[in-house]
Structure formats: structure tokens, C-alpha cells
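hey so i finally got around to running the thing on that chain from the lab meeting. sorry it took forever, my laptop kept dying and i had to restart like 3 times. anyway pasting the input first so we r on the same page abt which one it is
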Amino acid sequence: MAGVSLKRRGLAAVAGALLMLQAPLSVAADPVRIGWLSSLTGPLSSAAIAENQGVQFAVEEINAAGGIDGRKIELVTYDTQGDPTKAVNFAQRLAFVDKVHFVIGPVNSGESLATVPILAKAGLPNLIIGTIDELVDPKRFPRAFRAINTNRQWIMAANDYALKVLKKQKIAVIGDTSGYGTSSAKTAAQLLEAAGVKPVYSVLVDPNKTDLTDELTKAKEAGAEVIMPWSAATGLLARLLNARGDMGWKVPVVGHSAMMAPAIPKLLNKPEYWADAYATGYVSTTYAADGKLPPATKALLDKMRPRLGGKEIDFMFWWVALGYDTVKIVEHVVKKAGGTDPAAIEKAFETTKDLKGVYADYSWTVEDRNGFPDTGVVINAANSLKDGCFRAAPR
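ok and heres what got predicted. didnt touch it at all, straight out
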């Protein structure tokens, strides 16, 4: 009997030792792998670099706290250089070689149009941070969920400001000839007409055109009371503001968030040409009447300031907040799903309501893959950048 007892104790000790060995190994071998498609170099890199700061900070913060339910995050980053072909190649690598559990990005709509179908076919959850409508579809891309606002939300906010705040009815819509500019100008005109206002002047302009005096002269002759530009090209937007200023035409300009970019004042003939320009921004990065930021934004800004140079931030902080939130969203759905099973993750997204973030509060449903609320968009004074954030436009 004593021998049996000793034998049992020996077996128990061996089993216990094996369990002790296996437990840490299984955790170490099973991280939550996140693919991150970001254009860290190339012509579209400025926003992506800022987003990357937020992504990396969130990963470090979560891992320092023990990971997601004990599983560390492994971030697999590829620089697409803003090239859809590179984005496609990297998306395939993430899905079939790296075998990630999620993909965040790419960071612009043109690349995402190419990668979303690939990731959908692979069955991978994809967190979308491009704005055009075509990137989400619950039937075609059931595991693609958007964190950023839609382009339509930007346009609706701008139209609302022109019509209801400025109380102007005569609108000139100017887009550029890129796919984004063409689509946005068309949507802006359609939404204005749905509100009973037909634009008095509409035109598409080559984003490299050096002088927009002719277009603005025609808009003025048509009686335009507001100029509404839909282009992400900061050079074109600056030339539009220069043409308006050189003409001495004090017409308000209301449109794309790129009008607030730090590059704009460097391209203006006179600093005052930036006045009376209003652009789409976010409640999360807008100062209240008392001069304070939302608490979540202020907290993240303070935590990240040392790694952002320790000085006043001279770029749009919302990109950092968006990058940070994407990783926190992954953390939320993994916890909610109880793991990284793609079907369970899809269900976790579909049943997420009012998830508190820094950039926004998010909700998704079975029918709607757009998580950003309409109330999260605001119109900012374009020339009001201060520490990465902006003042609200006059109301």
C-alpha cells in the first residue's frame, strides 16, 4: 500500500510539473496577432505615422497590463507606402503566412478597396479606417467593421453647417478629379438637392492645377454664398484659399478636414486667407467653450506627450486617438468573444453598443458595420489648431 501511495504521489508530481511547464508555454505560444497595414512612408504617410503612434502605445499599454485575458498582443506591421498593390500583397501575407487574428487598415480608402475583399474571403476580422461607403457591407464583407466616420457623415455635417448655421442657400461645390474627389462632390451635390438646394456651380479640378481663379470667378458670378471643396489634397485647398483671398472675396469656405492640415498655412500667400474657412472635425478633439478638451482626449494626450516630443503637438491628434482606439476595440471584442474565433468576434462586434473610446464611442449591429456616431462629427475653425486640437466653428 505504501508503494502504491508513493507511486501515486510520484505520478501526481510529474503531472503537476508538466502542467506548470505547459501553462506558460501555451500563453507564450498563443498571442493575439494583429496585422497593421499602414502607409508609413510615401505621399500619404503623415496621418499614418500619427495613427501608428496611437496603435503602438495601445499595444504597449495592454501588454504591460498583462495582455488580453492573459494573451499578449503581437503586432505585425507592414508599410504599404500608399500603394494598393503592396497593400494587397501584405494583406495576403498577413492572412496566409503570418496567420493573424485581425487586420487593422489599410489607412486610406484606395488601398482598402483592394484589400477588403481579400481579407473577407480569408474570413479575417478587418477593422476599417477608410471613409468611403463601399468598404463595408454586412453581406459581402461580414467581418469588416468601420471605426472611422464615413465620408457621408463629413458631407452631411458640412451641408448642415452651410444651410442651417450660416443660413446660405447658394452653394458652389468644388471637387478634384481623383476618385475620392469625384465621388465626394457628387454625394455633396446629391445631399444638397435632397435638402431642396441645387448647387449654383459645380466643377471638378485637377488636384495639380496651379491657379483656381477661373473656377472661383465663375462661382462668384453664379452668386455662390458658400464654397464647398471636397478634396484631401492640401495643395489644391491652399490654392483655392489663395485665389479667394487674392480676389478679395470674403465668401466662407466649408468642407474637407484637410483644410485644417498644418501644411496649409505654409502654402498661403497671406495668413489671413485662412480666415472664414471651416472644416469637418471631431467632437473628441474640439475645445469646449471653457477651453477644455473631453477628459478621455486630455488623458491620452497627457500620457502620450513625452513620446510625441514633449512639446505642443503640431499635427492633428485625432489620428493618434483613432489608432489608439483600434487596438482597444480589438481588446474589447476578444474579451467579449472569449477568444479569437472569427465567428465569435463577428458576433461580439454586432452586439457592441456605446463602447467608450477616445476618438469616439462605437456601436455596431447585424445590419450596420459603421461604428462611428453621427454626433461625433463637428465643424471646426480651420485656422484654430492648438496642441493637436481645434476650436468649434461659430454657431
